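Thread: "does anyone have the structure for this chain?"

Original post by V.I.:
We have the sequence but no experimental structure in hand. Need at least a predicted one for the grant figures.
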Amino acid sequence: MPTTVLYCSDPLNERRADAHFAGEARALRAAGAVTALIDHDALLAGDAGRAVARVPAGGGRPVVPGLDAPGPAVRGARRRPARAWW
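Reply from O.Q.:
Generated one for you, tokens below.
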């Protein structure tokens, strides 16, 4: 099963990784890794569905480097039934 590296999206441009991780995300994609973006603000607001809406289904085991979110928010995203990626 593949691994997908998840990065928080830039709050000003949801199609780009946050500036703190943009270089790392580019390097991984250039090396052939699969990356996807999550909405950190939506995750903290408790809207797990919106937080992972841009993550493709079937992306394999997720890895989230540097995610700063409380446990309940992350557990909510993991329980999201609409996608089988986590």
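V.I.: this helps a lot. The longest strand covers residues 3-10.
O.Q.: and The longest helix spans residues 22-30.
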